[in-house]
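Same chain as my last thread, 237 residues:
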Amino acid sequence: MGRTAEPTRGPRPGLTVERIVRAAIGMADAEGLVALSMRRIATALGVGAMSLYRYVPNKGVLVDLMIDEVYREDAEAARAVTGDWRARLAAYGRQEWELYMRHPWVLQVPQGRPMLGPNAMASTDVALQAVDGLGFTEDEMLAVVVTISAFVSGLAKTVIEAAQAAERTGIADDEWWEIQGEFVGPAVVEGRLPMLTKVGEAGAFHSMFDNLEFGLQRVLDGFEMLLDARRAAAQPS
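reply #2:
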């Protein structure tokens, strides 16, 4: 576990911070963060709700511990990656994507002031190592990692929300697009949306959320172009 806390009083035998956190993660994975409550977790563990507060003071701290625990998986995978900087950053992006697919509730946690637990920081540190010494300033190194993370999390959020909408409404994506076609059809017939018509007829809207690899590589292309331009400018004329 990333952070451990000692029970404040009268610990119940067999109950630990790790058990509580893992039970909470399982509940959030299945039902989302909104379903999480100290009482429900206690029920799942077969203990009284007050027993949890001897180990975790409140739900906010529990969510912090949950976040750091799922990032432990990410950090461990990141340390095993080899290759050049592009390969390592691409792996970082894919691993973050997989984390969101396993634990979609993570995207429900505000990230404006992220919880800087040891495992979350370790994952970022591994990504920073991939760009160290390439010619970026320290500010730019962090910006590279944040930009990749922002792209991945943004796409993941859209994909997850689409899947949840399909589950909630019982309307599959293909059916949903057909319904939308009834509304946009007149504009298509009248030729007012030529480019949307072109990509739509090619089936692009049905695969628009399957573009993690395409987008990730294009982001990396941008960083590589910047590095190449700086190296070229540094060459004697």
